[in-house]
Amino acid sequence: MKDASLRTTYLKDYRPPPFTIETTDLQFDLYEDHATVVSRLLFKCDGGSSVTDLRLHGQLLTLEKVFINGQLLSPDQYITDDESLTIPALENLLGASFEEFQFECHTRIEPQNNTALEGLYKSKKMFCTQCEAEGFRRITYYLDRPDVMSKFTTTVSAEKAKYPVLLSNGNKQASGEVEGAPDRHWVTWEDPFKKPSYLFALVAGDLASLDDTFVTSSGREIELRIFVEEKDIDKCDHAMLSLKKSMRWDEEVYGREYDLDIFMIVAVDDFNMGAMENKGLNVFNTSCVLASPKTTTDFSFQRVEAVVAHEYFHNWSGNRVTCRDWFQLSLKEGFTVYRDSEFSADMGSHTVKRVEDVSFLQTVQFAEDGGPMAHSVRPDSYMEISNFYTVTIYEKGAEVVRMIALLLGPEKFRAGSDLYFERHDGQAVTTEDFVKAMEDASGIDLGQFRNWYSQAGTPVVSIRSEFDADSKRYTLHVRQSCPDTPGQSDKKPLAIPLRLGLLGSDGKDLPLKLLGDDDSIGETDRVFSLIEEEQRLVFEGLESEPIPSLLRGFSAPVRLQYDYSRADLLFLMVNDSDGFNRWNASQLLTIGLIDELQSDLAAGRDLALPQSLIDAYAGVLDSTLSDASVDKAMVAQLLSLPTVGFLIERAEVADVEGIHLVREFLLNGLAVMFYSSFLDVYMDNISDAEYAADAESIARRSLKNLALSYLMRSGKDEAVKAAQKQFSQASNMTDQLSALRCLVNSGAPGAVELKRDALDSFYKQWSHEPLVVDQWFVTQAVCQLPGSLAQVKQLLEHADFDIRNPNKVRSLIGAFCGQNHIGFHDVSGDGYEFLADQVLILDKLNPQIASRLLTPLTRWRKFGAKRQGLMQAQLRRIKAQGELSKDLYEIVEKSTI
Ligand code: B3K
Ligand code: ZN
What we know:
By secondary structure, the chain is an alpha+beta fold. It starts with 8 loop residues before the first strand and ends with a helix.
């Protein structure tokens, strides 16, 4: 890699663009061995700017011709390098004062050889694009930055027979046959809304579509079209329904109406991420569009709904109001994730959604925040922006917006969002503009709150309580701190919303009366803003010592430290009026027990199933068996132990084998102890009703399949038979795949054959469905039994594995290295070496996927000296290869010591 591309970009260096592009007129001619792009741009320059060189971004382009105001330039009038085209001293061409000029360039590209899947590329037989963040510069020379917003008109021409469908952003304007080429046709699309180049899209292919309409709140009829390969046309109903629900929800909850006459989604097989919100023409990974009961799990049904919503919501939070520069990425991503998570919660259960989101945040984002790539929600610098599409920008960014919503309350938050959209419609803005709109609309000062945008690291909130029976006062002593992160030390205190309640001995919430505050009488659930490093909250009028329910609903993305007794946790599990904290109490209880068992294990003591866990499970199982109205999704959460990934993340130094062993010991012990209850739960939740993807049915299946996994751990013949029966007779993929996972992970007698037979028959049944084959790869990659690495290596040779397809890479290599902790972290270091090998191969083909795949190796700090050494050795080996992509280089460079 050349030194020029090692450059770091800094937020502090941001300057507004010297030119704007009023109109962008593009003509694409697509062929099998190349594509030509003619771009006509109307530039304007602000009179005050002293810049007279026109420098445009461009990569991997063959430049054929350049014109300025219709005049063909000779090669000595411009300079090209790997990253740009520069026309120096425009005044020589245009005279001393120029306000606007026409630019035209003709370039050639090779979409068929584009394996990076950025810019214009081919996915199977279709052409498609991915431009965010900086892919447009691989299509033509341009000011490829989000603060340059232009009106686009796009004409696409291609062979009629192979590419009957030609799409781009906006509304269709005209179409026809290509003169002199009767086998070719063209279509022109015009997008009336100004947009940055990253929202440009083009698709050409032989596609079928599911069509529908939506009438907006103001009565406009919008055409809705989902384009897929003909074979998948029966798998689009769920995405269409999700789209219509999202459109209605955004009108009702945010007052946002759709603006174009048509909204299109196109599904492609080869895609670097989930989906992309291009204006009026969303491009989706097939895995986030297609859904049918027989081929798609409940988890994926929910993901389709969430991703469709997310991309649709971007039409306002991202497209109508976009980012000034890529440091502001969380402006659109954090806000949109917050919006989609509230949408999903409204479609199902708020508590369950919150539990899922917080578990993910604590496992994945906390790990990022504690590792070498830690960065703030608004980073200060980057080498490769693609590396910053992170859980911090997305999920922590969403938490920051959630905290604003909590501090403002629903009405003021809505007023803030209305003001933000009104004030900045058609603009490219900053996270500061977002916060300012929230402040202006609410009158609430968010001054100190802004530190959440600029400071990296997960804050720690430690709380100690004290009760004085004489004065009837209860005091919470609160301390906040935030660990140093790379390049950032001495953190300032944050404004942390702490939502809490106090429970009396009868389990009821007590009125919260703060000393000296007379306004609050009667409230039992309040949000306190922590702003000092040390603070006291003194409550008065308490007859006896309460039990605190702290950080209700996970009101801030922090690590909370409070010394709960086991009895307190059991009490909160049953009595807390906050559903999230009831779950959290159960997690804290289990974590404490796992810690103790790990110490027993390390000291060579015998392990015993803790009585408090037995009591907790007995309580939850009894209530679910006796009361049909309990929320089954919550029960499934309460009967699940924290994941290995979560336990690794929260450990000071993670003892992978110890965690795995203790967890397996508990699961097996509980399985035996509660066999008959699990059997009852399993039988009670079998249903022959037709498949439905509603929250209740999904909850019922999740509880049933959790029960099956416990039953299988007993090793009893009856359980194995139940799993086999479910596997072969399942009417939906959730049940079939759950049974397959049970069989594949079984340690029962004859398990080897069981496993092989189940995998073979599953593959035979589904080899024609690529997304199901992906699940078949995942199931083997995450198998917890010994030998999984060897199996994964063998599967790399399977006819259906394709290293050029990101879904396959994620399903096999990504799943093994990211989710199979016991396999990947094998103390031999073989897992680490395997990942480094694969990353080096991939880096030549698809740098974005290569650098993302490397993540598990960057978490070396969590492990003991031996593993750290082995992980570092692989990172150094990659670094020593030279010729790395910018993407991979940045991660390796920041992760090695
Ligand atoms: N905005 C896109 C992500 C683009 C990633 C580019 N490397 C999808 C989304 O967040 O909606
Ligand atoms: Zn997004």
